Amino acid sequence: MIVSFISFSLLAEAQETNGNVAASQTFEQYLSLYLSTDNSKTVSTASINSFVEKLESKKQSFKKESEFLQYTFNQTHRKFLKHYKQYCTFTELVDKGTYNCLTATGLYALLLQRFDIEYTIVETNYHIFLLAKTEQGTVLLETTDPLNGFISNSSEIEKRISAYKQNELMTVEKNKTMYAYNFNLYHAVDLDQMLGLMYYNLAIEAYNDQEIQLSISYLDQATLRYQSARIEEFSAIILLTLQASKLEASVKNSYLQKVKAIQTKKLSGLANGY
After folding, report:
1. 80 contacts: CB under 8 Å, gap ≥ 6
2. Pick from 36, 65, 246, 251: CA 20 to 30 A from residue 5's CA?
3. What is the model's pTM?
4. Strand, helix or coil at 187?
5. Is 120 helix (H, G, I), strand (E, B) or coil?
6. Any long-range contacts for 168-171 (C-beta under 8 Å, 24+ apart)?
């Protein structure tokens, strides 16, 4: 009986250790992928790794998982989330403290993954947020709100989710025309699909800057990682833009073929159940 007990104890310890290693490896893998999206210069991950080590050293001092999560939420905002910008990259978040709801949610998702806290990333038409499942209950993380973005009250969570499901633009900048999607999204996405959304955002930014070729390139990268209604709709917008453009005929035809290939890839992905 003693031998059996010791064996079980060692097995449990080994499983826990393997889980920690896997969580750490996933964190490092996706941190590298998110930082590579904009093809910018290599950014040091020393600050983020040091931050994770500090969180790890503090974790045992919290009796409740939800308290550790709130500490992580607050400290992450203080350390990395300093300036909101509608379009920015994950590199800018790590390097400059510039963030939006997508990159901030990506960072929190990686931290929850690293500390083995169960979570769901929820995508809507114009927003993305996190639901974390702690031992004390569900917590909604609104990553763009440093003061009131940690929500543990169940009725307040329901109110927030109800508002998100309306799929309305939260803010509209003056003197700008905003495109309204012809669909309603409210579903979970994983870390790979988050990577696709980061490429999608880059495609939107390039399009707004009238860099059509770059926009198409980023859209292609997005499609490889996420078969999304928003990507399908945006590819149709690019096609219309190209058809109305005054580009030289051979250039226009080349771009049109690339976008049509992206749309075909999207349809193929749907056919295969992606």
Report:
1. 48, 51, 93, 94, 97, 99, 107
2. 65
3. 0.86
4. strand
5. strand
6. 168/126, 169/126, 170/126, 170/127
In 3D space, the residue among 96, 104, 49, 56 whose CA is nearest the CA of residue 77 turns out to be 104
Asked if residue 133 lies in contact with residue 116, where contact means CB atoms within 8 angstroms, the answer is no
- Gap between the Cα atoms of 238 and 231, Å rounded: 11
- Can you list the domains of the chain with their CATH numbers? 2-164 (3.10.620), 209-271 (no CATH)
Give per-residue burial for 16-34: e unless 16+ CB within 10 Å, then b. Answer: eeeeeeebbeebeebbebb
- Alpha-helical (H) ranges within the chain are 2-35, 46-59, 65-80, 90-96, 101-114, 154-164, 191-208, 212-225, 229-244, 249-271
Closest CA relative to residue 218, chosen from 189, 196, 233: 196
Q: What is the pLDDT of residues 174-225, one digit of tens each?
A: 555 555 666 678 999 999 999 999 999 999 999 999 999 999 999 999 999 9
Alpha helices, DSSP H, located in 165-271: 191-208, 212-225, 229-244, 249-271
